[in-house]
Amino acid sequence: MVTHLPYKEVRVIHQLSVFWRRFKRSFTAEIGVFIIVGFFMMAIFGPQISPHEYVKTNLNEQNRPPSPEHLFGTDGLGRDVLSGVIYGARISLFVGISAACISTVIGTIVGAISGYYGRIIDNLLMRFSDLFLVTPAYFLYILLIATLRTRSILYIMVILGVTMWPRLARIVRASFLSLKETDFVKAAKTLGASDRRIIFRHILPNAMAPIIVTTTFNLAGAILLESSLGFLGFGDPTAYSWGSMLERASEVIRFAWWQATFPGLAIFLTTLALNFVGDGLRDALDPRLRAL
Questions:
Q1: Is the pLDDT of residue 14 over 70?
Q2: Burial, 63: exposed, middle or buried (Cβ in 10 Å; 0-12, 13-18, 19+)?
Q3: DSSP labels for 102-166?
Q4: Is 71 contained in some domain?
Q5: DSSP label at 205?
Q6: DSSP bridge pairs for 74
Q7: Which of 230, 237, 262, 279 could share a disulfide with 244, CB 3.0–4.6 Å?
Q8: According to the model, what pLDDT value does residue 274 have?
Q9: Is 9 inside a domain boundary?
C-alpha cells in the first residue's frame, strides 16, 4: 500500500532540503559546523577524552613546555593545559549558549511587542533599548559584575543575556513592522484572531530567519565576552573556563607562552566558526533566494 505524507510534512521536508542545499554552498560554513561539533563533543565527553585530570595539581611539573606527555604543556600548578582547554570548553560554551538563549527570548518578545503594537509602546520599548545600546558594553558588564558580592557563572550568564538583547529586538521589530501589513495578517485580523495568535502563529514563524542568524552571532559574542571578563579577573574564580585560563597565564606569558596560546586559540576558533555558520545561515535563509 502506498502511503502519502500530509501536505504540511512534505512542505517542511522540501524546505529543509532546499535550506541544506543552500547552506552547503558555503564551504566556510561547513568548516564552521565541523569545528563547533568538535568543541561540543569536547564539552560533553571532556572527562572521558581528557588525557589528564585537570583539577589534579603536580608541583613537580610546573610550567613545562609542550611535550609528548603534555601536548599543550603545563601551567603554574603542574596541570595539563590540553585537559584545561577540554574542561574549559564546557563552561565557556554553557555560558555562551545560555546567554544567547536569554537574549533571544528577551529580544524577540520586546521586538515583537514593539513592532506589532507600535505607537507609544514602540517608543517606550525602543528608548529603553537605546539605554543599553549607548552604554559602553564592557563598562556595563564590569559595573554590574563588580556590584555583586559573589561572582558566579550563573550571574555572568544572566548579566550577559539581559544586556545583549537590544540589537535583536530592533531586528525583530523591523520584521514585524513589515509583516503585520501583509495580506495574511490582515485576513487573520478580519477573521477575529487574537493578537497573541497573530504574533506567535502567523508573524513570528515568518520572522525566524533573522532571529536564528542573530542568535548565532550572539552566541559567538557571549563566548568572547565571557572570556574577556575572565581574563580581566571578573569571572568566576572557581570555574575552569578559557577566560580564567588566560587570566592565570597573563602572569607567566613571557616565559610560558603555551599557557595563553592554546586557550586563546580555542576562543578564536570557536568564535570564528560560529561567525562562519552565521554567515552560512544568513545566505541560506535569505528570502530573496527562495526562488532559486
A1: no
A2: middle
A3: HHHHHHHHHHHHHHHH-HHHHHHHHHHHHHHHHS-HHHHHHHHHHT-SS--HHHHHHHHHHHS-H
A4: yes
A5: G
A6: 80
A7: 230
A8: 92
A9: no
Q: C-alpha cell of 236? A: 568566576
Total count of residues recorded for the chain: 292
In the predicted structure, residue 1 carries a pLDDT above the cut 50? no
Per the structure block, which three cell numbers stand in for 17?
532540503
* Domain extent for 175: 15-289
Confidence of residue 36 (pLDDT cuts 50, 70, 90): very high
Domain membership of residue 138 (yes or no) is yes
d(CA 48, CA 42): 9
**Rounded to whole angstroms, how far apart are CA atoms 75 and 63?**
5
Q: Which three cell numbers stand for residue 268?
A: 578564536
Question: Is residue 6 included in any domain, yes or no?
Answer: no
User: Which cell goes with 13?
Assistant: 521536508
Structural domains in the chain (count): 1
